[in-house]
Fold:
Amino acid sequence: KQEVTQIPAALSVPEGENLVLNCSFTDSAIYNLQWFRQDPGKGLTSLLLIQSSQREQTSGRLNASLDKSSGRSTLYIAASQPGDSATYLCAVQGAQKLVFGQGTRLTINP
Amino acid sequence: ETGVTQSPTHLIKTRGQQVTLRCSSQSGHNTVSWYQQALGQGPQFIFQYYREEENGRGNFPPRFSGLQFPNYSSELNVNALELDDSALYLCASSLDGGGGYTFGSGTRLTVV
Structure:
């Protein structure tokens, strides 16, 4: 059974810092890994999708890496801004479904 | 390109009642999945529909059921509502069940 863990559960940093969010999964047989952002009470916004054959993806200030052999992914956010405050969810795709971690609640302080 | 739309956005029901939630998939997507997200938790997979057939189910009782229509839109039905069914229900669409999922804004269900 696939299990996904995200560390830390919550993170508060001053504006401008670079930061790393971590995601680990127990079964390396995945199709892809997707990082999402969720604002309070809202749906999920896809940030980055990494196919199982890829090592990393970049979009603007975001960079996500994938190491299937070790069951790990990281989301790197450069030059953080108050607007980046949200919950970040990691999800791995197996057959027919996504398995999510519990998320990292990120607060960027002005 | 239209995204995933869900209706209604909020709903309050009484324990024991039945509810139907609706989802329109993103243009070009043929697979719809439903997830339940309790407060402070990650979303949990309920089931997936592909070509109008259930194509995978999570650990949810049979009172959770669904439909997919020829235009790929979908419904989630929950019978005999319980207080623990209070959650955010998320719909996601994809192409052939892979290549990344697009989520809707969700339906907030409160059971009292």
